[in-house]
């Protein structure tokens, strides 16, 4: 657990903890744990003491932002008027990509405004919006989840995704009985020299949105629908219908799987 980057290691940074406290006092519209990890990653990778970071060997292995051709494939780096966004026109995924990009931009703006008001202008020498988007892309594509929190785990986060046969179970990570080690077991036996892969068990729209790739064959894929329920419809029979479907949001994301033969009457 000592080599892992998570909320616990983030709050040990005086600058990260102070910045989060001040953002909360100003009631900035940012998610606390996510911002903690973003600032932690940014400070360790780009901050003034980055060469002395205990995580430097791990951080040096992450995709480099300075390489203009290497932007993780993340929609956060799609050109505003580029072909990638145009290819998504007419799909529900476009609104998710636009919202994702907007959330990252708004979070940076809230942080920028706070640092500017606080007179911490020198921080912008290493904390740029492009680097902030890079940190978002790293967290969203590489985080390992357990106990309801995300963690950056050296080596484990480098295991690639692959569609595997039915004997391979989706990956899962748990703490051991002492809470000292995170344990992820391989889904099957892998021969010496063979690449260890795992099934992330997500539909392709999640892969593209947060990981920057899609699989040609994905047994967890679905037809994705993003629904925006107008205010006038948020009552009566629509409300009953949504409860019947176990949907408790006015803007749900719905996946319809090919083998799902249920119908709505």
UniProtKB/TrEMBL annotation:
InterPro entries: SET_dom_sf, SETD3_SETD6_MTase
Transmembrane annotation, as ranges: none
The protein, known as: SET domain-containing protein
Domain of life: Eukaryota
GO molecular function annotations of the record: protein-lysine N-methyltransferase activity
């Amino acid at each position: 657990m000592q080599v892992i980057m998570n909320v616990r290691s983030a709050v040990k940074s005086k600058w990260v903890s102070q910045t989060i406290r001040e953002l909360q006092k100003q009631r900035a519209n940012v998610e606390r744990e996510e911002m903690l990890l973003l600032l932690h990653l940014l400070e360790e990778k780009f901050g003034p003491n980055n060469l002395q970071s205990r995580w430097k060997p791990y951080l040096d292995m992450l995709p480099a932002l300075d390489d203009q051709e290497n932007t993780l494939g993340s929609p956060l780096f799609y050109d505003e008027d580029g072909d990638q966004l145009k290819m998504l026109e007419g799909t529900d995924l476009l609104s998710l990509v636009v919202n994702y990009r907007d959330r990252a931009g708004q979070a940076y703006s809230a942080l920028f405004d706070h640092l500017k008001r606080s007179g911490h202008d020198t921080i912008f020498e290493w904390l740029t919006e492009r680097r902030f988007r890079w940190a978002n892309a790293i967290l969203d594509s590489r985080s390992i989840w357990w106990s309801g929190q995300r963690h950056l785990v050296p080596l484990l986060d480098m295991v690639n995704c692959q569609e595997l046969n039915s004997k391979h179970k989706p990956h899962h990570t748990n703490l051991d009985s002492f809470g000292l080690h995170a344990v992820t077991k391989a889904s099957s036996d892998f021969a010496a020299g063979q690449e260890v892969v795992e099934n992330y068990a997500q539909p392709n729209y999640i892969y593209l949105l947060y990981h920057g790739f899609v699989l040609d064959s994905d047994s967890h894929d679905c037809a994705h629908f993003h629904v925006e329920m107008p205010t006038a419809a948020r009552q009566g029979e629509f409300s009953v219908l949504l409860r019947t479907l176990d949907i408790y949001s006015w803007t749900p994301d719905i996946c319809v799987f090919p083998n799902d033969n249920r119908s709505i009457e």
